[in-house]
Design goal:
This protein has 317 residues and is of the alpha/beta class. The chain has a five-stranded mixed sheet with strand order 3-2-1-4-5. Helix 3 crosses helix 4, helix 7 crosses helix 10 and helix 11 packs across helix 12. The protein starts with a helix and ends with a helix.
Length: 317
């Protein structure tokens, strides 16, 4: 109270010593803290974006000036060969580009993506509908600059691009589906061919191209016409239906049908081992890349299943 009263009446007196850190250092401490935070934020703000208009043989690259700088827009055209794309990547690194956006134009974006992926750039694959130009104002240079401007303004939604190993696995599984889709019509054509020849084998056997069905087909291609002899070639439970099988094979099977059956059966024989070999390659890659462990984490109900179950279900999603 004496200190306050003396200060009020203008009398000079020394303030008592305060223990601990002096109060004057507190603003200095906070000033240094905020200065360091401001410097960190300034470093994080640096952005330089690039837009790419992708074509089959050429790619137009447009680089905008860094945020906060008044440089000019840079445009350059490159080819799509690997060496040209590597030159483009080196040039972008020299310009300190941080973000790159390109249209998902068919499959033409994939070579550029492969060269730029995992090289320190933030890549965005965007839907062409988001950067569609107005009528009469479309050109390659303008398209690249428009993509870059939209990227800088944050008006682009990135499309999902999976990791390289996932993309490769997807391609393998899709090719397997394509092989299955090629084999199924052949199976149906053989069934229809028998129907046109009044051979009702598909009404008796559950699988026309099973073990018994293939043995009968091979004998028919070899020239065997006796329904009784053909019925002897069945295996398993079909032996009990030998008489029914014999009756189903009595038709109007002629040389024309034999020629068509031989051609279709050769095609089926080619596709079946091809699909089996391809499935083995997929299973090996699956176990080698570790997809099975990640699959069991995402789908615990598949854990403990056979090695092929996981990638078959994963490929169907």
């Amino acid at each position: 109270m004496n200190v306050v009263r003396n200060a009020w009446w203008g009398q000079q007196s020394e303030a008592p010593a305060v223990r601990g850190k002096p109060g004057k250092e507190r603003p200095i401490f906070f000033g240094a803290f905020f200065a360091s935070r401001q410097g960190a934020l300034m470093r994080e703000v640096y952005r330089r974006v690039c837009g790419m208009d992708v074509h089959r043989d050429t790619i137009v690259v447009c680089v905008l000036p860094a945020v906060g700088k008044a440089d000019s827009v840079i445009r350059k055209t490159y080819g799509t060969f690997r060496n040209e794309l590597i030159r483009m990547r080196v040039w972008l690194k020299q310009l300190d580009v941080t973000e790159i956006a390109m249209e998902s134009t068919g499959l033409y974006w994939r070579p550029e993506w492969n060269v730029l992926e995992e090289q320190g750039f933030q890549l965005l694959l965007v839907n062409p509908a988001q950067v569609k130009a107005l009528a009469g104002r479309k050109s390659d240079g303008r398209d690249g600059q428009r993509i870059a401007e939209y990227l800088q303004d944050g008006r682009l939604d990135a499309s999902f691009v999976p990791a390289p190993e996932v993309r490769q696995m997807r391609a393998l599984l899709r090719h397997r589906v394509a092989l299955i889709e090629q084999r199924n019509p052949v199976h149906n054509q053989i069934r229809d061919l028998f129907e046109t020849a009044n051979v009702k084998l598909s009404s008796v056997v559950s699988d026309l191209l099973g073990v018994s069905g293939r043995r009968i087909i091979e004998a028919m291609i070899a020239g065997q016409e006796s329904a009784e002899i053909l019925s002897w070639r069945v295996r398993g439970k079909l032996r009990k239906k030998a008489k029914v099988v014999k009756e189903s094979l009595k038709g109007y099977f002629q040389d024309f049908h034999r020629t068509m059956l031989a051609a279709l059966y050769r095609q089926y024989q080619f596709l079946t081992p091809e699909m089996t070999w391809f499935e083995q390659q997929i299973a090996q890659r699956w176990s080698r890349t570790g997809h099975r462990s990640r699959c069991s984490l995402r789908f615990p109900e598949w854990t403990g299943s056979s090695p092929g179950i996981c990638w078959r279900n994963w490929g169907s999603m």
